[in-house]
Design brief:
It contains 13 helices and seven strands. With 312 residues, the chain is of the alpha/beta class. It has a seven-stranded mixed sheet with strand order 3-2-1-4-5-7-6, with helices on both faces. Strand 2, helix 7 and strand 3 form a beta-alpha-beta unit. The longest helix has 20 residues.
Length: 312
């Protein structure tokens, strides 16, 4: 499932499209901005937006649907639905955290940025000054990546020379093999971003990817990844959570696994990684949402972790 290609229709997953739109909605409506990423509004097609709006109306409870129908436009409905979604805050905060960590890593000497399961992430066209001397690798499922490249072309985007697209299905090919067949240099420090993906993979697949990062990278390289607390998946949750989980499964994007925060450090150590930081909802809220009045807040079950390759 790395790359988030929907098995239902062979196109980019609804999760990837929604995440791109969430970042654009945040850029337009939330203040202060934590990220400046308007690209979802351009990369997600009009047909996909119309379908999202229709699904939202059809799936809403009667009272919620009535409220949505009073809004003045399709765009207003999409904005309202996305901002009220349980994952909205997490999508925004994980993006900000990852790019903060990337900037710090580059300042310490990282010269390569690898996005695993890049989806419709737009960093390649938003590169801040600190990133313009690093090599950027986007690893994604071939179908999803082809769709993204087509959308970029339709937007008349000229791909920067420091960007390399690496099509790969990581359920079929190990990350180490993928990195070995592109210009990634394992002797140079790197930074890996792996956001919004691990929940859709088996535990074995997640451990294999993290092990691949450790084995393929220079000591001091880092990875930021998101995960859900495994205990949440193992226990019955609220009706809203269970409905969301069932919806994702019906779309071919089932939630398969997470990590236990209490054992994550030891698991990473066994893979050749040192856990630098593991932020749950309270830590993310304290770091990024203090004093906000717009209601932006992380979900209750997600984590974002940063780990460093030990080289041992």
């Amino acid at each position: 499932m790395v790359g988030k290609v929907s098995v239902k229709d062979g196109g980019p997953s609804r999760t990837a499209l929604a995440a791109a739109l969430m970042r654009a909605v945040h850029t337009r409506l939330d203040r202060p901005r934590l990220i400046d990423d308007p690209w979802g509004d351009r990369l997600v097609s009009a047909v996909e937006k119309a379908a999202l709006c229709q699904r939202a109306l059809e799936g809403a409870e009667p009272a919620a649907r009535k409220r949505l129908e009073t809004l003045r436009s399709q765009q207003a409905i999409i904005d309202a639905v996305l901002r009220s979604h349980g994952t909205y805050g997490g999508v925004i905060l994980r993006s900000r955290y990852a790019e903060d960590a990337l900037e710090s890593a580059v300042a310490r000497g990282a010269r390569q940025y690898v996005l695993i399961g890049a989806g419709f992430d737009s960093f390649l066209v938003r590169q801040p000054p600190f990133a313009r001397d690093i090599d950027i690798f986007e690893i994604d499922h071939p179908a999803s990546q082809a769709m993204k490249r087509q959308r970029l072309e339709e937007c008349a985007v000229k791909i920067p020379p420091n960007v390399q697209f690496v099509p790969a299905d990581l359920t079929q090919e190990p990350l180490e093999s993928v990195l070995a067949r592109c210009s990634f240099c394992r002797a140079l420090p790197a930074f890996f971003s792996w956001l919004g993906v691990t929940i859709y993979l088996s535990r074995d697949a997640n451990l294999a990817t993290l092990r691949g990062i450790a084995r393929s990278s220079a000591p001091g390289s880092e990875v930021v990844f998101t995960y859900i607390d495994q205990r949440v998946l193992d226990e019955r949750q609220s009706a809203r959570f269970e409905k969301m989980r069932a919806t994702r499964a019906a779309l071919g994007e089932a939630w398969l696994s997470g990590f236990n925060p209490a054992t994550l450090e030891n698991e990473l150590t066994a893979l050749g990684l040192h856990l630098v930081e593991d932020l749950g909802s309270s830590e993310l809220r304290s770091r990024y949402c203090a004093g906000r009045t717009d209601g932006l807040s992380p979900g209750t079950n997600g984590h974002v972790a940063r780990a460093r390759v030990t080289g041992g």
